[in-house]
Write a structure and sequence with these properties.
The structure is a single chain. The protein is built from eleven helices and two strands. By secondary structure, it is mainly α. The protein has two domains: about 70 residues, Arc Repressor Mutant, subunit A (Orthogonal Bundle); about 150 residues, Four Helix Bundle (Hemerythrin (Met), subunit A), CATH 1.20.120. Helix 5 runs antiparallel to helix 10, helix 7 packs antiparallel against helix 8 and helix 9 runs antiparallel to helix 10. The longest helix is centred in the middle third of the chain and has 22 residues. Strands 1-2 form a two-stranded antiparallel sheet. This is FCD domain-containing protein. InterPro entries: GntR_C (IPR011711), TF_FadR/GntR_C (IPR008920), Tscrpt_reg_HTH_GntR (IPR000524), WH-like_DNA-bd_sf (IPR036388), WH_DNA-bd_sf (IPR036390). Pfam families: FCD, GntR.
C-alpha cells in the first residue's frame, strides 16, 4: 500500500476466518453473553451460521481451547463448552518467559517486595467496609484452627485477593495475584504453625491500617510482612526458590 506522501507501508493481513469466528465467540464468553459451563452450538450449527467449512469451525474451536475459553467434551452429548480462563493459566504462561530469561522464584519475591507496599497503600485509599469485613473473616477463620493447613491456605488466599481487589486497579490485581500464585505454587511443604500464627498477626496489622484508611501505615505494615515472609523463604526454602523456574504442561 502506498500512502499520499509516497511511503510504502505493508498492507495489514486480514485475520483468517477461523480467527474471526474465534474472536466473536471469545467476546461473547468474556462479556457474559455466553456463561461459563454453557454448551456452544454444534459444529454443524456453526457451519451453517457462519457459512464456512467444518475444518474452519474446528480450527476456531482449537484456538479457543488453547486460550482456555472452551473445553471440548467427548462422547455422546459432548462438544464445545464455554469456560473462563484462570490466573493459573497466566502464571503458567509467565513461567515460559521466566525460564527463557533464567529467572527464579527469588526474583519473583523481589518484585513482590517492591510492589506489595504500593498495593497496600492503594487498598487503604480505596477499601470498602465490605472488603474489610471479608478480610477480617478470613483472618478469624485462620485463627480458629491454625493446624488445618487447607483452611489456612484457603483463607490466606482470600485475604491476599481481597487486598489486591481493594486496590481498585484490575491490571495491578492480575499482576499481583499471578506473582503470588507463582510463589505459593513453589511451596513444597506445610508451613509450621508458629509461622502461620505470626503471618496472621502481621496481616492483622495490615488490615487494621487499611480499616483506619491510613495509607502510610498500610504500606509500612505490608512492607514488614512481605520482608519477614521473604526472610522465611530464603532461610527455609533457599534451595527451592533459587532454582530456575521451569514451565511444564
Amino acid at each position: 500500500m502506498v500512502t499520499t506522501d509516497g511511503e510504502i507501508v505493508p498492507r495489514a493481513r486480514a485475520p483468517k476466518m477461523s480467527a474471526k469466528i474465534a474472536n466473536l465467540i471469545a467476546d461473547q464468553i468474556l462479556t457474559g453473553g455466553i456463561i461459563e459451563g454453557q454448551r456452544l452450538p454444534t459444529e454443524k450449527d456453526m457451519v451453517a451460521e457462519h457459512g464456512v467449512a467444518r475444518t474452519t469451525v474446528r480450527e476456531a474451536l482449537r484456538l479457543l481451547e488453547s486460550r482456555d475459553l472452551v473445553t471440548i467434551k467427548s462422547g455422546i452429548g459432548g462438544g464445545p463448552v464455554a469456560k473462563r480462563p484462570q490466573l493459573e493459566s497466566l502464571g503458567n504462561t509467565m513461567k515460559l518467559f521466566l525460564q527463557i530469561d533464567g529467572a527464579n522464584i527469588s526474583d519473583v519475591i523481589d518484585v513482590r517486595l517492591m510492589l506489595e507496599p504500593i498495593v497496600a497503600r492503594e487498598a487503604a485509599a480505596n477499601i470498602t467496609d465490605e472488603q474489610v469485613d471479608v478480610m477480617q473473616t478470613a483472618l478469624d477463620r485462620m485463627r480458629e484452627d491454625p493446624g488445618d493447613y487447607g483452611n489456612f491456605q484457603d483463607n490466606n488466599a482470600a485475604f491476599q485477593r481481597s487486598v489486591y481487589d481493594a486496590a481498585g486497579n484490575p491490571v495491578l490485581n492480575i499482576v499481583m495475584e499471578t506473582l503470588w500464585l507463582l510463589v505459593r505454587d513453589a511451596e513444597p511443604n506445610e508451613h509450621p504453625i508458629a509461622t502461620r500464627l505470626a503471618a496472621i498477626e502481621m496481616q492483622q496489622d495490615v488490615l487494621d491500617a487499611m480499616r483506619a484508611r491510613d495509607e502510610d501505615a498500610a504500606a509500612d505494615t505490608m512492607s514488614a510482612f512481605v520482608q519477614e515472609t521473604a526472610k522465611y523463604y530464603r532461610r527455609r526454602l533457599s534451595k527451592i526458590i533459587s532454582r530456575p523456574v521451569r514451565w511444564q504442561m
